[in-house]
Amino acid sequence: KAGVTQTPRYLIKTRGQQVTLSCSPISGHRSVSWYQQTPGQGLQFLFEYFSETQRNKGNFPGRFSGRQFSNSRSEMNVSTLELGDSALYLCASSGGTGAEAFFGQGTRLTVV
Amino acid sequence: QKEVEQNSGPLSVPEGAIASLNCTYSDRVSQSFFWYRQYSGKSPELIMSIYSNGDKEDGRFTAQLNKASQYVSLLIRDSQPSDSATYLCAVNLPSGTYKYIFGTGTRLKVLA
After folding, report:
1. By the 8 A CB rule, do B89 and B23 touch?
2. B7 touches chain A (CB under 8 A)
3. Which residues from chain A sit within 8 angstroms of residue B34, using beta carbons?
4. Which of A11, A93, B58, B68 would be A26's cystine partner, CB 3.0–4.6 Å?
5. Which region holds residue B9: left if phi is over 0, alpha if psi is between -120 and 50, else beta?
């Protein structure tokens, strides 16, 4: 059974640019949630999608957005990048028999 | 007050000893509790989930939940150097969604 796949693994962007990250959940899972992890703040919840609907949103500015497709794959977009957006972005897949979340390998974003 | 609190450590234990990791949470209605292990530069890996009061054992790992006192703990028996990692505690509220609140993690060092 394939795990959670995130692409790309690494990104380097310039301030002011935008970026799109992708996540394919475990087959059969309908929920995808996104987290930002930085050394100072730990894992911070961005948003959760379930069956193409955003059900929860964390306390992040509107520059952070996402969407989910009918095949449960999800994308996250960050516009007008700032240096502080440099982080590990993690996608979690849920919706199996329990309430567990399973993480992808993450996308390491560096903004210069 | 943070929603999920963990001692940042590092917690140092000798090889073969029991490592005890603790986590407290603020929201009394929290229903699902999880422990993740995260190696440096890697994504979090689910170790244990626990949903009801008491102990849950899986190999060398035992999760303990006390909802009245709002704490959850993880015991690692016969600790190995390969257990050296950051351990994240996560809580899921009973909102019917997959939104998880994470502690900032406890760094464990197992000394050979």
Report:
1. yes
2. no
3. 100-101
4. A93
5. left
